[in-house]
Amino acid sequence: MSAPAEQPPFQNGLQPDPTTNPESQPESQTVLAPEAEPAPAPEPEAQPERAPVPEVQPEPESIPELQPRPEAVVIDAADPTVEEAKETTTPIQSSSEGTARPELKRDDEGNRTFTMRELLNGLKNDQGNETANESSSPYSYSHSEETPHQQQQQQEQNNAAMELINSVTGTDDDGRSRQRVLTFAAKRYASAIERNPDDYDALYNWALVLQESADNVSPDSTSPSKDALLEEACKKYDEATHLCPTLHDAFYNWAIAISDRAKMRGRTKEAEELWKQATKNYEKAVLLNWNSPQALNNWGLALQELSAIVPAREKQSIVKSAISKFRAAIQLQFDFHRAIYNLGTVLYGLAEDTLRTGGSGNPKEVSPNELYSQSAIYIAAAHALKPNYNVYTSALRLVRSMLPLPYLKVGYLTAPPVGKPIAPHSDWKRSQFILNHEGLQQVSKGDQKQVPLSGSGRSGDTAIKVNIPDIVSVSACGDLTLPPGAGLCIDTIHGPVYLIADSWDFLDGWLDAIRLVYTIYARSKSDVLAGIITG
User: Residue 380's beta-bridge partner residues?
Assistant: First the structure.
């Protein structure tokens, strides 16, 4: 996308000066070229959220290296909450060789919820009784026509899985205690499957046990290996989804297990195939349960990991797909700070790649400068929502200079005359707008300084102004009464304000920025955002 006409052109290939304050050039922000892959791209070991086990143990807060963790599926809990997790770091390559750049850490851990409360209750009340009371899932159906060979094969598979679980001891007292519960659970599910091999609910829960057991394995253990446990968990998920193709929780946790296996293989062809499998399972999980911001966030993280391995010609399309997944997650949950931060890091990486390659030459393509500025907006918003989260604080120090300080966003929109939201198309004019923690305001030519915000586009004002507290909703719109283009509607308590963005890509940026500022205000964190852009 081409930068607005009023903006000075940005020369691709030039490394922006990270110390320059873009205040004097609102549209052309100084960019800090990172050094390695896009910040969001899962590099080290940030694991997706694994299938958790009931309230038995505290959530493991350690995230492997830098890879993101998808959120774990919730069966018993209706409204999963995102818990704090450790951060991971992803290096960003610099556009110019030899220049060492800081790293953007990425937030890839989500909430880990467990699905075995019944198991825990059974453990507390009658841990020794593994008898007929352990009935199979009400969702399963009986299978009475198994041949002796099939029965023997099933028994061998069960024995192999139990042998793996029995060999896990845990690395500390908590781990050993937790593993005893997992082993007890595995025996129950193995017994249920022996009675009814088509009990997909038992297969799914057994897969969860195997996946959780993998977390209890010492990193340097070879017997059993973490990979062997995850591989066995994947087999159980495969069986469960074969019996019940609509079991979205199984597809989700299966994708997490595959992602963990992929991370162990670095940037190899085998890892590439595993990441592709993980993205397909996340896609199935989302198709079956579209209202899951955690699944969308993890899907985006898996795509980021994949983009770091595939050939260069395939990378950009995969990165753009990851951006769409993070954005969809945010649209489902506006304060989902992990998805907000991950979107900022993937945009940072895309800006770096675009700057390094010089772009496609398409005048409608978003410039690296604009991508860097967008990246900084999301990272600043994540920090405002979670100011005590160290990974966001570190990333903000890296990208803050890319913001058009003392504003959060500066750009161009086509607007009608003040007080006339419905005016002849010829009366609409393209002008500069600024957005900060207080609101959105039109800037008249020759006046680049912000005027105190008061009112929301009411007649009598000399410029369009929208105070954040006055906003009711923000959405894209298309109407014959509006000039052609990417329409933006900001509905306020004083009435709607209609604007036109330069393109649909720029519209996405405006929509997200305004929504994020409002969300920060609604969470009573406007003072944090104010400190970021004015401090």
Answer: none
